[in-house]
Write a structure and sequence with these properties.
The chain is of the alpha/beta class. Bound molecules: guanosine-5'-monophosphate (5GP). Guanosine-5'-monophosphate binds next to strand 5, strand 6 and helix 4.
């Protein structure tokens, strides 16, 4: 009954829990395709090329830009990040929802190119909670954490431009809220094959 999938963008400051929630959704939501971004940042411990990101050199990333292979791209904390267009379009055309976990600059580029997309902003309940998470996960240096907190203040100002806001005080509840958005958006008539549906009433 679906003509095509929905493009769902989730953004939020580093440490807001996007990764954890996306992993939970990956287990729970059938037919959800997770876009794998390209980046010039170095892999963290345990990250695999082609699974967590496509880890590229700067020239290779710039080739993707000039070859028009990216739906969006941005400079985040001094590294390039971008969304390869082709796999995402293929998934949408086969009726699968596609999830992008990208920053706010990228989210607005996606909205410009693909106005039917859904933007979800994930936000921790307070700055103190955000700082606590960044320090506890132990993946970033003190300088990185300071930079991420400053960046978070700017990003949070964009929350009013998103379609949905999910407060991540408790991961299970936040995951349920994001899933509720995905399910509600699946009922939009624009994504359904209304002709086939109406045919059954003739
Ligand atoms: P991290 O280096 O912690 O994995 O990601 C840093 C930031 O880059 C996060 O806010 C993440 O959402 C964002 N990001 C990851 N992939 C992309 C992408 O393809 N495009 C954009 N614009 N941002 C991305």
């Amino acid at each position: 009954m679906r003509k095509k999938g929905n493009l769902i963008v989730i953004s939020g400051p580093s440490g807001s829990g996007k990764g954890t929630i996306c992993r939970a959704l990956f287990q729970e939501v059938p037919d959800l395709h997770f876009s794998v971004s390209a980046t010039t940042r170095k892999p963290r411990h345990g990250e695999k090329d082609g699974v967590h990101y496509f880890f590229l050199t700067k020239p290779a990333f710039e080739n993707m830009i000039t070859g028009d292979e990216l739906l969006e791209w941005a400079d985040v904390y001094g590294n390039y990040y971008g969304t390869p267009t082709e796999p995402l379009m293929k998934a949408l055309e086969t009726g699968r929802d596609v999830m992008l976990e990208i920053d706010v600059q990228g989210a607005f580029q996606v909205r410009n190119k693909y106005p039917g997309c859904v933007l979800i902003f994930l936000i921790p309940p307070s700055r103190a909670a955000l700082e606590h998470r960044l320090r506890n996960r132990g993946t970033d240096s003190d300088d990185d954490i300071e930079q991420r907190l400053r960046w978070a203040e700017k990003e949070i100002g964009e929350v009013v431009n998103y379609d949905y806001v999910v407060i991540n005080g408790e991961v299970e509840k936040a995951t349920r809220d994001v899933y509720a958005v995905i399910k509600a958006e699946r009922c939009r008539p624009a994504l359904l094959d209304i002709e086939s549906l109406l045919h059954k009433y003739r």
